[in-house]
Fold each of these.
Amino acid sequence: MADVVEGVQRAPGESGSSRRSGDVGLDAADDPLRVLRLSQQNQQPVNTEPQRAHIPAWLGASPLGRIQTTNEMEMQLAALEASLARTPLPMDSERPRTYLPKIPCPCASYYPQVSAQNVDTLEYYLRLSPETLFFIFYYMEGTRAQLLAAKALKKLSWRFHTKYLTWFQRHEEPKQITDDFEQGTYVYFDYEKWSQRKKESFTFEYRYLEDKDFE
């Protein structure tokens, strides 16, 4: 009975020793491939993208380790982190430009279609009131009208103070005149209150006098 079972399991003419030797040879050849496949399946993907490191602010002051900090130091470090995250942009320091349309708006036929003649001359600006000249000077910055208004104000004995950004005019002859300054009573234009005011015993230093010719 044992011979019959062994004959069914083993082909005729094939010995048991050769079968076992063949099985051993196949197993020996399959083991490296199976180990390689298993290692590839178990291997995790490697992240090759650069990682962003966050270096605390206190590490720059104490690279050997964090020192004992106080509440005031913690608040200062937090303020530094917040200011770094909200740094101003270059465009924040630029002065906003006013829009000047290239195409004029259509108007009624009875309205003047062209500007009056000689409105861009100094003679025309000299006929305007000082308040109008001040308005043109402060509210039409960077234009030819501002330049002409400044020329007209200088013709009317007004002097521009570069420190206070205000126009001054002598109310009377100065009580003291030196090479560096003059002192006396002056009339100045207050652009915040939009009125002329008088200032007594005012020292006008010549280094703050705008003496350009505006040509």
Note: The two ends are 130 Å apart (CA to CA).
Amino acid sequence: MKHALIVEDIPETRTWMGRILALAFPGIAVRAAATLEGARRLLDDPLDLALIDLNLPDGFGAEFIVEVKGRFPAAVCVVATTFDDDEHLFPSLQAGADGYLLKDMTVEQIQNLLLGIQRGIPPLSPAVARRLLGHFRAPLPTVPSRPELTPREQETLALIAKGLSIKEAAAILDLSQHTVGGYVKEIYRKLGIGSRAEAALEASRMGLFAKD
């Protein structure tokens, strides 16, 4: 591990996380950002490891995981958060997180879990690992299958998920804004989503970014 990025809005926590990285990987170059916007500006530099908070001032950290994986497929993205509930855990894993650490652990505990990355061991807090085991041991509810997206809807989703406006997507697809707007509404209805962050997660899950 030579290059790391910390995305965390609390200055004291950024310093604490930087100290852990220095202990785990002596000599590692660490950059930090307090917002998603600031983190995106650092994606032109090499990246091996990212520690990402989830609740950031300008968005959900899982959005950034999707972007990092798109730019640096081999980079290790580890969530560092106080939330251990399903609403935060599973969207993060679906976005491509390679690990999930809770901030209530000691410096030594987090350091040891990060060191496991080089041995191919996912850095998971014990409480998170237990939650995952419990989830898969529980009886699975019957979930109705969702309607499939048409090829044109998939193209639209891929563009919208990358942050393009309806106007920009319409220009690329050579369609009217009205038509693309209709596609977006239908996509949101079929997938049961209501935001661009969720659209990005669904596009990643469906492998649409890989089709570029």
Note: The CA atoms of residues 84 and 128 lie 6 Å apart.
Amino acid sequence: MSPWLTVVGIGEDGFSGLGKNARRALLNAAQVFGSQRQLDLLPACIRAERLTWPSPFSLAPVLALRGQPVCVLASGDPMLFGVGASLARVVENAEMHVLPSPSSSSLAAARLGWALQDVTTLSVVARPVAALNAHLHSGARLLVLSNDGSSPATVAALLRERGFGPSRISVLEHLGGSAERRVEASADDWNDPPIAALNLIAIECIASANA
């Protein structure tokens, strides 16, 4: 079967930030799946039926349209903890195109001046923050994909509990968009400021003297 599914990585800059192939795929699609936030980034010229993901999340609505021109929107790079990786497990590679945008990890590393090859990228999206424990050691640099606006406070609490209170936390909101913002503090000094739901947590691990 020829490709019928296109997974489009879209950033906070929306449709204007997409390449020619991604725009063409969206213009030619019969259905477009994504979160409401992602679908709202599309202009009126996209005439496809816009479909939000079911709750609980399922790929079944996409797979039911096999053979039709379908687009799926993902944040940044769809293959980095994204829906593209999930689809690749159930859709043959020959049936699917993946068109990535810069990942939030790449954008965060660029903002912070961190070399990506020296950074560990993790996700706490629908995962316990305890997944960070195995990666906590002095000098480690972590990029953590947040579940929501409460994730930074939860991560800061974990760092304090594990003896990494001096660690530097940078929370980067809406990377690549007009609302981009950075909030910084140590885990010890994190006072739970209001944080946007769309954020990434950068951690420079520093152990306390008595850790």
Note: The domain at 105-205 is CATH 3.30.950.10 (Methyltransferase, Cobalt-precorrin-4 Transmethylase; Domain 2).
